[in-house]
Amino acid sequence: MRKDEMFLYLCLIALIFFPSCNSVDTLTPIQSVRDGETLISAGEKFVLGFFSLANSKNRYVGIWYNQIPNQTIVWTANRENPVHNSSGILTIKGGNLVLLDGGHNNNITLWSTNVSSSTMANNSSATLTDSGNLVLKDGQQRTSWESFDYPTNTYLPRMKLGFKKRTGLNWILTSWNSADDPAPGEFSLSLDPRGVPQYFLKMGSERIWRSGPWNDQRLIGAPLMSGYSEFSWSYVTNDDEIY
Ligand SMILES: *[C@@H]1O[C@H](CO)[C@@H](O)[C@H](O)[C@H]1NC(C)=O
Ligand SMILES: *[C@@H]1O[C@H](CO)[C@@H](O)[C@H](O)[C@H]1NC(C)=O
Ligand SMILES: *[C@@H]1O[C@H](CO)[C@@H](O)[C@H](O)[C@H]1NC(C)=O
Ligand SMILES: *[C@@H]1O[C@H](CO)[C@@H](O)[C@H](O)[C@H]1NC(C)=O
Ligand SMILES: *[C@@H]1O[C@H](CO)[C@@H](O)[C@H](O)[C@H]1NC(C)=O
Ligand SMILES: *[C@@H]1O[C@H](CO)[C@@H](O)[C@H](O)[C@H]1NC(C)=O
């Protein structure tokens, strides 16, 4: 067997026995995603990696669709703290996902999930799912943080918009500052539970649109919600959450 045939043969064996060895959807504490590297969800729907925007050299960690050729960002981690060159490193430390700027003698933390560290933090992991959610699990495999709880400017199927009553977690959409700056901009969409609960689009603190209440099928002020048979909507209100 020639050397190149041997190589192909070994690759084939590797693919049969380790079908996911060419793309990885999970990060563990002994690994990291450096600028230029990616996580790809198991069904290859979404990618997590570093990106920059049109006229900017700043680097951000984000999630985008794997199969849409024009990179379409759906979530950004370090919205307000970009890495200024390619020395960013995303890794897991003490049970938290952290973004480090490795371009210094000491790594500087630019962004962190900030969930309290757990025992067995060395057994934690983060997985990018096929719905575009980055899910951090603690040492006992319980979800300790997920990107769907921290929406940026994009609503994806299975995300919630509203809030969690006990923890005060707010699921709000906020616009980007501009096409090349994903920091929170002027506009937001949030649920106001006072009176008849409804969503408000705001510019700063000024309300510029309201959705009206849920009528069991759609928000009454958003007739287009019933115009897309591909989507089904639901509105949930219970002791813990309204969304
Ligand atoms: C993709 O991006 C290019 C360049 O920005 C643009 O001309 C084109 O219309 C985009 N295509 C789609 C499908 O959005
Ligand atoms: C990134 O910038 C830092 C200074 O902020 C520098 O020390 C480092 O060498 C740079 N890294 C690369 C890969 O250019
Ligand atoms: C910075 O973090 C990376 C990834 O965890 C690690 O490999 C590297 O040793 C760290 N560098 C310093 C100076 O601590
Ligand atoms: C994490 O906590 C630090 C210190 O309290 C804070 O400066 C930082 O903004 C927090 N990061 C996130 C992503 O919430
Ligand atoms: C984590 O640390 C504990 C105790 O130090 C050890 O028993 C366990 O094997 C480690 N797990 C991993 C995945 O390294
Ligand atoms: C560590 O994680 C693995 C899966 O990654 C799990 O099977 C195991 O139960 C975990 N260990 C502990 C002590 O929870």
UniProtKB/TrEMBL annotation:
Residues 24-149 form the Bulb-type lectin domain. SUPFAM superfamilies: alpha-D-mannose-specific plant lectins (SSF51110). Residues 1-23 form the signal peptide. Keywords: Kinase, Lectin, Receptor, Signal, Transferase. It holds the Pfam family B_lectin. One of its GO terms (molecular function) is kinase activity. It comes from the Eukaryota. PROSITE patterns: BULB_LECTIN. InterPro entries: Bulb-type_lectin_dom (IPR001480), Bulb-type_lectin_dom_sf (IPR036426). The keyword Kinase applies. The keyword Lipid metabolism does not apply. This is G-type lectin S-receptor-like serine/threonine-protein kinase RKS1 isoform X1.
